[in-house]
Amino acid sequence: MTSATSDDTGVGVASWEVAAREFAAWRAGDRAALDRLVRLLTPVLWHLVRAYGLDRESAEDVVQTTWLALVRNVDSVRDPQAVLRWTTTTARREAWRTARAGKRVDVAEPQTLDAALPPVGGPDTTVLAGRTARTLWRHIAELSERCQRLLRVIAFEDRPDYASLSSELGIAVGSIGPTRGRCLDKLRGLLAADPEWSDQRD
Amino acid sequence: MTDDLTLLRAVHDMYDTLDPPPVDLADRVLFTLELEDLEFELMRLREADQLVGARGPETASTVTFSAESLTVMVTVSDSGPQRRRIDGWIAPGGALRVELRTPRGVHETQADADGRFAFAEVPSGLVQIMIHPTTGATVPLHRPVVTPPVQL
């Protein structure tokens, strides 16, 4: 691994360096480091798993199962730097497997779409206003299922393992990059054609 | 034109805003990881007749968990201020040893031959039910089965 945290995507995904440090500390006997690792990565795993269309209960099951797998198979993670990729890949694989088994796939709106308005007014400019988020949600829903999944994965996982992603998306490894480009272009086009979006972003 | 990074950041923030993880998901994961012996089967939540963790007076909710070899149906009702009663039913029925983990300790009971068990007074908060292989029970379990933690 050559670059630090998320230099290549800049989307604020969890840092493999922080994850590696906490994992190493936990392995060295610091129990609180496991606590920090779980709090750091659980939201990431949640979004990756939800990208596979699982309903919220199944998604929770998969996140729990992933962490249990890590703790049970801790010796298989020889290099602490690999812990982020190990957990994200395990979670995606389990989510994909569960979704393929046809269990409780949720194609509906998120439960929170109307209930949870975004945090109000904070100085954090990364938090989208609710209306903006809904506009974006609506246009993403117009994309193909493959695009939706790919965009959600790469929005939360820096450098996902392309081999596993390839089989989960049903496209060749070499096609992931171009597909990603096409999905983003399509979304950009939809947003550009929506006056509501331009109003909000200006 | 929005560049790729800006767009992906917007996608990231949008999902965080509209489909966030349950606020206590990490707490529940850690609750399970605190178990000393991780040799168990994690049950899956099958169905809930209302949101798990729904609060307020007069609430009763039923949740069903399943493992490979058995299911357990759990009904939670109020038994006083900040107190809950848990009635459980294991199927297939059998006199299995049942533990209830709470942040303040472990309660233990034994199901009857029909698989029914109860915990009368449970403080609200995270709980987790563990069903153990039990000598003499008609249901053979190879290892304990454990529910994911739920908020009472």
UniProtKB/TrEMBL annotation, chain A:
* GO CC entries: DNA-directed RNA polymerase complex
Q: Give all residue intervals belonging to the RNA polymerase sigma-70 region domain.
A: 37-104
Write one Gene Ontology MF term. Answer: sigma factor activity
Kindly give the Pfam families that the UniProt entry links to this protein.
Sigma70_r2
**Which InterPro entries does the entry mention?**
RNA_pol_sigma-70-like, RNA_pol_sigma-70_dom, RNA_pol_sigma70_r2, RNA_pol_sigma_r2, RNA_pol_sigma_r3/r4-like, WH-like_DNA-bd_sf
Superkingdom to which the source organism belongs = Bacteria
Swiss-Prot/TrEMBL keywords: DNA-binding, DNA-directed RNA polymerase, Sigma factor, Transcription, Transcription regulation
**Statement: the UniProt record of this protein carries the keyword Metal-binding:** no
Gene3D superfamilies the record matches:
1.10.1740.10, Winged helix-like DNA-binding domain superfamily/Winged helix DNA-binding domain
A GO BP annotation: DNA-templated transcription initiation
| SUPFAM superfamilies attached to this UniProt entry | Sigma2 domain of RNA polymerase sigma factors (SSF88946), Sigma3 and sigma4 domains of RNA polymerase sigma factors (SSF88659)
Tell me the NCBIfam families matching this sequence. sigma70-ECF
Family indicated by similarity: Belongs to the sigma-70 factor family. ECF subfamily.
Q: What is this protein called?
A: DNA-directed RNA polymerase sigma-70 factor
What organism does this protein naturally occur in?
Answer: Phytohabitans suffuscus
UniProtKB/TrEMBL annotation, chain B:
Please report the organism this UniProt entry assigns to the protein: Phytohabitans suffuscus
Q: What's the name of the protein? A: Carboxypeptidase regulatory-like domain-containing protein
Top-level taxon: Bacteria
